[in-house]
Design goal:
Elements lengths: L30 E4 L4 E3 L7 E6 L23 H10 L1 H6 L2 E7 L3 H11 L5 E3 L14 E4 L2 E4 L2 E6 L2 E6 L8 H14 L6
Parallel strand pairs: 3-4, 4-5
Antiparallel strand pairs: 1-2, 1-5, 3-8, 6-7, 8-9
Length: 193
């Protein structure tokens, strides 16, 4: 199975309204363990924008993917999504965006994925699923008694969420959609004083 490509006929997730409350919220001042070592903050980013893509789990050696994974709307596609952000990383950085991926997957699996797929940005570990708490209350789903995040991408400017991509489908187009959004923001005229 080639995890870098999306199979045909994946079920499309529906917008269940689970992320409607996120627009204009402040990003919580939380730190997460990072595949780059240490911790990374969601508010103290070294650029104007934060792009945080949240995903269920990536595949790879030692990662048990359920047999019916492809039948769960929105579950399949973490590897293609991460690789698309990798491929657009230079363009996103040029637009002053800090890119992080985040999941509840074990950190050692995230580190293996970063190394194997040459991911140039940190993946953050939220094994405790703190982003399911207020104020963000990010949506989850359960498979085999394991609670995983649903796929959502947040763009924040100066610590405030300005754009929410949810549901994200197909996942391999998410990075280019984020890039298009950031380019539009960058080219918009400044508001009148």
């Amino acid at each position: 199975m080639d995890l870098t490509r999306l199979p045909a006929n994946l079920p499309e997730p529906i917008d269940d309204g689970a992320c409607d409350h996120l627009q204009a919220l402040d990003v919580p001042a939380l730190e997460f363990r990072s595949t780059a070592g240490g911790h990374r903050s969601l508010v103290d980013v070294p650029s104007r924008s934060l792009v945080l893509f949240v995903y269920p789990q990536t595949g790879g050696p030692g990662v048990d993917i359920p047999d019916d994974w492809d039948q769960i709307p929105g579950a399949r596609g973490c590897t293609p999504q991460s690789c698309a952000f990798r491929d657009h990383y230079a363009e996103l950085s040029a637009l002053e965006a800090t890119v992080y991926g985040l999941s509840s997957q074990p950190l050692y699996q995230q580190r293996e994925f970063v190394e194997r797929m040459h991911i140039p940005f940190p993946l953050l570990n939220d094994g405790a699923r703190r982003l399911t708490d207020a104020p963000l209350r990010l949506p989850t789903f359960t498979v085999r008694e394991q609670v995983l995040y649903k796929r959502v991408t947040l763009v924040a400017e100066h610590g405030r969420i300005t754009k929410v991509f949810y549901p994200v489908f197909p996942s391999d187009e998410n990075a280019s959609n984020v890039l298009e959004y950031l380019r539009a923001v960058a080219s918009a005229p400044a508001p009148a004083p």
